[in-house]
Design brief:
- Helix content is about 40%, strand content about 20%.
- It is an alpha/beta fold.
- It folds into two domains: about 5-60 and about 300-400, Aspartate Aminotransferase, domain 1 (Alpha-Beta Complex); about 70-300, Aspartate Aminotransferase, domain 2.
- Helix 12 (about 345-355) packs across helix 13.
- The longest helix is centred in the last third of the chain and has 27 residues, at about 375-400.
- The model has no long low-confidence stretch (mean pLDDT about 95).
- The chain binds pyridoxal-5'-phosphate (PLP).
- Pyridoxal-5'-phosphate binds near residues 193, 221 and 249.
Length: about 400
């Protein structure tokens, strides 16, 4: 039995079956490559779900984490430390408007903080929330209540919250759903877990206008889209709008667990002392990692690179013109390749066989979210191998059809 098969067996015996058995057992990473426990090398085009923004083993991240864990690994919120302050200052600076920050440890916690924050700001007259069909905001009960994916949501309701779902990108449906009794609208600029589905241009401006007209809070979930993924610091900057609350996680820590909830203007001070907290939130090691990620994105010009190489990646895939590819969506180094058949799982496994990690985010869409440090040569290495991967996957799909 291979080392991978052995580890999978041990995994299955001790872990709850919520993830199924992951196909690849990773041991180490180096730049944009990862190696499995049998020594097979893969070019990483998913980066731990848009998390490992600097790739693997980036010296800036390694140094920041090592130095901070040696100096002081944890303080709790009973004490403050410089790193968390510097990180919050940096985030406010990048967002370009007066704001206050709450630091958490994950995306779902960032959204839980946002939910409590808007509840505090709205008061009891505002009784319901609006979110989007197929949207994803996390797995804890509050964030799950806002998640528009019935398969993962419905088994765990009722949530004790009135949440109304409108189609993503549909401004008219939004206008009809949001009244002055709505506490907040939760949206993603691009729906990540739905398959990297952008809203039509101008949609976020419409959300802003509806929220301005009704007084509902505009909460923008940039957990997957933020921190350079689309070629800008934040996806909403493409439309020049400002939400009331923004949530961040994933790429922010470059692989260390961290989340952030940022409130603009009056939303920054809506929590009173004692309203919210987290033992690990603002953890010094995670804060040092996030600062290293942001500084490295600046120093290495990774926003421009994400924009340019993202276009190259999308253009090369379109250029192949394979009949299995219906569409390449998204921006920057964050792409959904929609297929003409429900063959995404086949593309994922054929790609892994060929030494490339991609993600079947839905049955018919393959998600690509490589490290922002990926090079032109590495992009071309992938797109050069893709025709054979697609051909093999199309063969697998044909076989499904005959079965
Ligand atoms: C991943 C994700 C979350 C949840 O983040 P976790 O860290 O897994 O809790 C929430 N919203 C969006 C848009 C995400 O992509």
């Amino acid at each position: 039995m291979s080392a991978t098969e052995q580890l999978k067996k041990r995994f299955d015996a001790v872990f709850m079956p919520n993830y199924g058995t992951p196909p690849v057992a990773l041991e180490r990473g180096e730049g944009r490559y990862v190696f499995d426990v049998d020594g097979k090398r893969y070019l990483d085009l998913i980066a731990g779900i848009a998390v490992s923004a600097l790739g693997h083993g980036h010296p800036a991240l390694v140094e920041a984490v090592a130095a901070q864990s040696a100096r002081l690994a944890h303080t709790s919120n009973l004490f403050l430390h410089e790193g968390e302050v510097a990180l919050a200052e940096k985030l406010v600076d990048l967002l370009g408007a007066p704001a206050r920050v709450f630091l958490a440890n994950s995306g779902t916690e960032a959204n839980e903080a946002a939910l409590k924050l808007v509840k505090r700001a709205a008061g009891p007259e505002r009784t319901y929330y609006v979110a989007t069909v197929a949207g994803f905001h996390g797995r804890t009960s509050g964030a799950l209540a806002l998640t528009g994916k019935p398969a993962i949501r419905e088994p765990f309701g009722p949530f004790g919250m009135d949440v109304r779902f409108v189609p993503h990108g549909d401004a008219e449906a939004l206008r009809a759903a949001v009244t002055d009794e709505c506490a907040a609208v939760f949206v993603e600029p691009v729906q990540g877990e739905a398959g990297v589905v952008p809203a039509p241009e101008g949609y976020l401006r419409e959300v802003r206008a509806v929220c301005d007209a009704t007084g509902a809070a505009f909460v923008l979930d940039e957990i997957q889209s933020g921190i350079g993924r689309t070629g800008r610091w934040f996806a909403h900057q493409a439309e020049g709008v400002r939400p009331d609350v923004i949530t961040l996680a994933k790429g922010l820590g470059g692989g260390l667990p961290i989340g952030a909830c940022v409130g603009f203007g009056a939303y920054g001070t809506a929590f009173a002392k004692g309203d919210h907290g987290s033992t690990f939130g603002g953890n010094p090691v995670a804060a040092a990692a996030a600062l290293a990620v942001i500084t490295t994105i600046e120093n290495e010009g990774l926003l421009a690179s994400a924009a340019e190489l993202g276009e190259l990646l999308a253009g090369e895939i379109r250029e192949i013109g394979h009949p299995l590819v219906a569409e390449v969506r998204g921006a920057g180094l964050w792409r959904g390749v929609r297929l003409t058949a429900p063959a995404a799982a086949h593309v994922q496994s054929r790609a892994a066989e060929a030494g490339f990690l991609v993600n079947a985010v839905t049955s018919d869409t393959v998600r690509l979210a490589p490290p922002l440090t990926i090079t032109r040569a590495e992009v071309l290495e992938f797109t050069g191998a893709l025709p054979a991967v697609l051909a093999a996957a199309a063969g697998d799909a044909d076989e499904d059809g005959r079965r």
